[in-house]
Amino acid sequence: MATVWCLSLIPKILFLNLDMKKNKKEFLPESFTKSSLVTEVLTMAVNSLWSNKLRTGLTMLGIIIGISSVVGVTSIGQGVKQATEKQIQSLGSDVILVLAGAASSGGISQGGGSASTLTVADAEAAASQVTAARKVTAFLQRGNIQVVYNGQNIATTLLGTDLNYPDVKDAYPQEGQFFTQTDLDNANSVAVLGTKVRDQLFGKESAIGAEIRIQNKLYRVIGVMPPKGAVGPTDQDDRLFIPLSNMSSQIVGNNAVSGVAISGFWIAAKDSTQIDAAQFQVTNLLRLRHNIYPPQLDDFRIINQVDVINTFTSIISLFTVLLVAIAGISLVVGGIGIANIMLVSVVERTKEIGLRKALGASYFAILTQFLTEAVVVSSIGGTIGIVVGVVIAIAGSQIMKVPLVISPLSIVAGLGMSVSVGLIAGVVPARNAAKLDAIVALRSE
Known about the structure:
- The chain has helices spanning about 1-15, 25, 35-50, 55-90, 120-130, 165-170, 180-185, 195-200, 245-250, 275-290, 305-350, 350-360, 365-400, 410-435, 440-445, and strands spanning about 95-100, 105, 110, 120, 135-150, 150-160, 175, 190-195, 210-215, 215-225, 230, 235, 240-245, 260, 265-270, 300-305.
- By secondary structure, it is an alpha+beta fold.
- α1 (about 1-15) runs antiparallel to α13, α5 packs across α10 (about 275-290) and α13 packs antiparallel against α14.
- It is elongated and about 105 Å long.
- It folds into two domains: about 1-85 and about 310-445, no CATH class; about 100-300, no CATH class.
- Strands 5-6-13-8-10-9 form a six-stranded mixed β-barrel. A two-stranded antiparallel sheet has the order 2-3.
């Protein structure tokens, strides 16, 4: 639309600004209408550009690169943004993560290998006293745990948790079942696999009922979790779940100062509006339970998933703007190229300009002719650039496995920018051409 609008101005300028001191009929036949003016101007512009195909193509190249970069980068950036938001939201947009810190003595941290500062009792207290919480699930986590089945040996993340995990994380087994209260009470050796662990150990075989070995202890597989994808370096499918009581007694051992140690717990708020209230309440609760008073530092960390989502979104948006700004440099280069070529064209076509002025062409007629050529070059280059940008966006979405997002706004903006570049770059050359004296131009060699 921007191109059509700009081109529609050209015949108006040409028609209204022919030499007003002369009779219009002296220069225009009766059948010469505004529509024929448009055709005449565009035909002359296209013929002039076509007679120098290589130069025209090279002039367009800067515009094509700039517009295709803007459209492609914007689309891929939006796709990455959507994919990232979806992955982070899969963690639970109404979920707060409370993580244990290292125990300290006299204000000095004892290090990551010391006793955990969170226990099952802390999670139970949060479940009963945090009024903004819907459910709480405790977990104990260890990475790089060796799992063996039928000669296959893999390293994965082991997660000991309780019965509330599926409800809090909105992740229910796609095969089999999750733990039962009996499994938790008796610390039964049962396991639920993430999809990646299942694929690595069993391939296309059914995993339900099979026995796997975790640190030389046999566990019976009772379920397989649904695929959740990766969020940053954390692959949610590369996990293996066992009852928290079993992991505490059989795998890790009790390393808390008192009670059953945990790595942390998730709190599912009653709804998204209760996130801040739940965070405030659990912070105060843990400080009271752990006898922490200002200026003492907390021995736990709280991660709000909404804050994580907003942070990632801001980073991706800034990164996209940066890339688009860099791509915009190509448009500037393309504009310089158009201006340069049009200036050369004016010099090469001095006699042509002199002849047209001698035959009665006005200042504005010459000005419009050269502006039209600049706009045609930039418009065609912009159109090709949009097509190339869409192809880049499609290829990028396939390679990066992100949603294909082609914004109509980026296409309209790209075409508008290309026309604007053509108009701006063509002004000086067109003005120089229009100001040439007819006699001097005809005498030039």
